[in-house]
Amino acid sequence: MGGGEHGSWCDIHFYPPASPIGHREQLKVSSSVFVHVVDDDQAVRESLGDLLRSMDYQVMLHGSASEFLSAELPDAPACLVLDVRMPGTSGLELQEYMTRINISMPVILMTGFGDIPMSVKAMKAGAVDFLTKPIREQDLIDAVATAVRIDQGRRNDLVHIIRLRERYKLLTPRERQVMVLVATGLMNKQVASELSIREATVKMHRGSVMRKMGARSAATLARMAEALNIQR
């Protein structure tokens, strides 16, 4: 795909899934999940779009890297199916640029001209998969499913961090001091010594911290502190 370096549309095809059973029906997904396809060949874009829509994905087709970057991206789980060889900005260049501007959408790269160095470079840059043509339908479906799960997990983690930050804001300055010390594994007596306060006061602040943060144990509190990048 892409540029004048590939053959005609008739030379590019998809192999059917290896399994004859209704595998597609087992892989239907929520229609709120988006797949972006970037390829300069319109016929290829539409073919990929038809396949992915049959899996109930919302599909957005883009004819170039610049077209993708200028599009309004829905705030929903998504992944990018990206041709490597395109006029202007290549797939690898777009992948690198997305990393620089902090677009975290998982990327699946594909090409009819892939080689080992290119594949290694793509995977090191964070690509979920690197598919070479002719592409099996099931390989693409599986790669997209994996990429979407990654993005869903990333979004869930982000929501979790946002909620933790909101809870952390509710802590008083002293409670934050107690939290970081408890998270490092110090006992109440040690925390009291560090802060030059009574142990009973530490217990009071610790109980308030646990309640506000929604932590049931010191281990949980330690994981929260780590997620928030709170250090002593």
From TrEMBL:
Q: Calcium as a keyword?
A: no
Q: Which residues, if any, are the signal sequence?
A: none
Q: Which SMART domains match?
A: HTH_LUXR, REC
Source superkingdom: Bacteria
Every Response regulatory domain range: 34-148
Q: Does the keyword Transcription apply?
A: yes
> What PROSITE patterns does this protein's entry cite?
HTH_LUXR_1, HTH_LUXR_2, RESPONSE_REGULATORY
CDD domains reported for this sequence: LuxR_C_like, REC_FixJ
4-aspartylphosphate modification sites are 83
Where would you find the membrane-spanning parts of this chain?
Answer: none
Q: Which UniProt keywords apply?
A: DNA-binding, Phosphoprotein, Transcription, Transcription regulation
Q: Which residues form the HTH luxR-type domain?
A: 164-229
One Gene Ontology molecular-function label: DNA binding
Positions the record marks as coiled coil are: none
Q: Which InterPro entries match?
A: CheY-like_superfamily, Sig_transdc_resp-reg_C-effctor, Sig_transdc_resp-reg_receiver, Tscrpt_reg_LuxR_C, WH-like_DNA-bd_sf
PANTHER family recorded? DNA-BINDING TRANSCRIPTIONAL ACTIVATOR DEVR_DOSR (PTHR44688)
Q: What is the official name of this protein in its record?
A: DNA-binding response regulator
Organism encoding this protein = Bradyrhizobium iriomotense
